[in-house]
Design a protein that fits this description.
By secondary structure, the chain is an alpha+beta fold. The chain is built from 16 helices and 23 strands. It has helices spanning 15-28, 44-48, 67-77, 93-101, 111-118, 120-130, 144-154, 180-195, 252-268, 300-307, 311-319, 399-412, 422-430, 432-435, 443-448, 460-475, and strands at 8-11, 31-37, 51-56, 81-83, 105-106, 137-138, 158-162, 172-174, 200-204, 210-218, 224-236, 239-245, 273-281, 287-293, 336-343, 345-346, 352-353, 356-357, 360-362, 369-373, 380-381, 388-396, 414-416.
Length: 503
């Protein structure tokens, strides 16, 4: 057994990604420190970690975004490094610098690389110098007349985008010149509110593109590799909900070109650790740089399943200074993987987030099915954080096998007491466009909406019966049988009722 890369790390995150990192650390022999807010005092990641530190109130601005408290917790507990996960402070260059300044290791890229890719306009300029294809555009700045002239040169439709943003915020599609001013002003207001930076720029709007991203991995010794691609075109409100690898769109020649471009992009900013270079691919199979996510992606499991590497473990090893022991020629995709993001949301009502307590959760448990989650029976989905319940990931020998396995896994996933998107995901998977790989980034809006659930929701009587049956099952695994805790055999003894953590 090799020595662990660190003795102890702190995980500056929550939910399923915190649980995912904890499990990887356990396998490496690395002790973990969790941090938690008031809302997460009884969360799964808190109980799974070796230690846990309270860092503030429920709102993220009072807890998971308080970098100074997180660093203080790491120093107090003797952690050597901090893993930021994704979201929150994961792409905050100032936080990464503060971690390093405190004598700790930031498990991610150098702060300069985060900054270089954090500004969309600066990233475009860097990519152009590196020879990476970018969508025709205008970097922004100047008076409205400058934007208008640039839009005419580029040609409508135009996409107005926030320079410091992502996730669809500060973004507007402009079809005609007479709506450009309003779109720019609205995007600037939204960008200022979301990111504290109202700068916007223009790009040619690529109609019906595929969203294809390439996973990269780079060590501190100059090795930069790509781990092939993920197709992420099934999106709602500019947010991915289904990802897969390989992409049904790419052939080997295009895959090789996009992989080389992703490596060039990473090298251009001195990238280290795991990152993702995102591209748009148009109807003529031209690809254009979209952005680089300087962190671990939500959808990283599909890459893990097809290339056979644990990305979280390699994040730790790279941060500890280890060399990548494999080359580009060693990386091969085997089989097909699909991930569905299961959200507490209502697809029939504009995908509005849902809140409430999960009265019963039963995860599918069959070969080649993986569930990454941070919640289960008895846990509450609040309005404070992202409403994702779980990531369901499957692997199959072929894409057809993987789709069939995912459909069955979704049917086997029981979630009672909260509104969720599983019925919608099943309808997407069953649609001929998805089956034949024809889905583009605007497909959900154009094809699936408005959406109505075909089967009626479960009524309250069924929910009550399910919860009661679960309670009785826990209270009396075998009627009249004695247990180690209560040898009397009383099925109603409180000693026979285990809590949700099995204790």
């Amino acid at each position: 057994m090799t020595n662990p890369p660190f003795e102890k790390i702190l995980i500056a995150n929550r939910g399923e990604i915190a649980v995912r990192i904890i499990r990887a650390c356990r396998e490496l022999g690395v002790r973990t420190v969790a941090v938690y807010s008031d809302a997460d005092a009884h969360a799964r990641h808190v109980f799974l970690a070796d230690e846990a530190v309270h860092i503030g109130a429920a709102p993220a601005t009072d807890s998971y975004l308080r970098g100074e408290r997180i660093i203080e917790a790491a120093l107090q507990t003797g952690a050597q490094a901090i893993h930021p996960g994704y979201g929150f402070l994961s792409e905050n260059a100032d936080f990464a610098e503060a971690v390093n300044a405190a004598g700790l290791v930031f498990i991610g890229p150098p702060p300069d690389a985060i900054r270089a890719m954090g500004s969309k306009t600066a990233a475009r300029e860097t990519m152009q110098r590196a020879g990476v294809p970018v969508v025709p555009g205008y970097q922004g700045g100047g008076a409205f007349e400058d934007y208008a002239a640039a839009a005419e040169r580029i040609g409508y439709p135009i996409l107005v985008k926030a320079a410091a943003g992502g996730g669809g915020k500060g973004m507007r599609i402009v079809e005609h010149p007479n709506t450009l001013r309003d779109a720019i002003e609205a995007a600037q207001r939204e960008a200022q509110k979301a990111f504290g930076d109202g700068r916007v720029y223009l790009e040619k709007y690529v109609r019906e593109p595929h969203h294809v991203e390439v996973q990269v991995l780079a060590d501190t010794h100059g090795t930069v590799l790509h781990l092939c691609e993920r197709e992420c075109s099934v999106q709602r409100r500019h947010q991915k909900i289904i990802e897969e690898s390989p992409s049904p769109l790419l052939d080997e020649a295009l895959r090789e070109r996009m992989g080389a471009a992703a490596v060039a992009a990473a090298r251009a900013v001195g990238y280290v650790n795991a990152g993702t270079v995102e591209f748009l691919v148009d109807a003529d199979r031209n690809f254009y740089f979209l952005e680089m996510n300087t962190r671990l992606q939500v959808e990283h499991p599909v890459t893990e399943l097809v290339v056979g590497l644990d990305l979280v473990k390699w994040q730790l090893r790279i941060a500890a200074g280890e060399r990548l022991p494999f080359t580009q020629s060693d990386i091969r995709q085997h089989g097909h993987a699909i991930e569905c993001r299961i959200y507490a949301e209502d697809p029939a009502n504009g995908f509005l987030p849902a809140t409430g307590t999960i009265l019963k959760a039963v995860e599918p448990s069959t070969p080649w099915v993986r569930v990454d989650t941070g919640v289960g029976t008895g846990d509450t989905i609040t309005h404070y954080y992202d409403p994702m319940i779980a990531k369901l990931i499957v692997w199959g020998e072929t894409r057809t096998d993987a789709i069939a396995r995912m459909e069955q896994a979704l049917r086997d996933y029981t979630l009672l007491g909260i509104t969720h998107n599983i019925p919608f995901l099943l309808d997407v998977l069953h649609h001929p466009d998805f089956q034949h790989g024809r889905v583009t980034t605007d497909w959900v809006e154009k094809t699936m909406l408005p959406w109505t659930q075909t089967c009626p929701p479960i009524n309250d009587d069924v929910l009550i019966a399910a919860v009661l049956a679960d309670f009785l099952e826990q209270a009396s695994p075998v009627s009249g049988a004695s247990t180690a805790a209560d040898p009397t055999g009383d099925p109603y003894s409180p000693w026979n009722i285990a809590d949700r953590f099995g204790r």
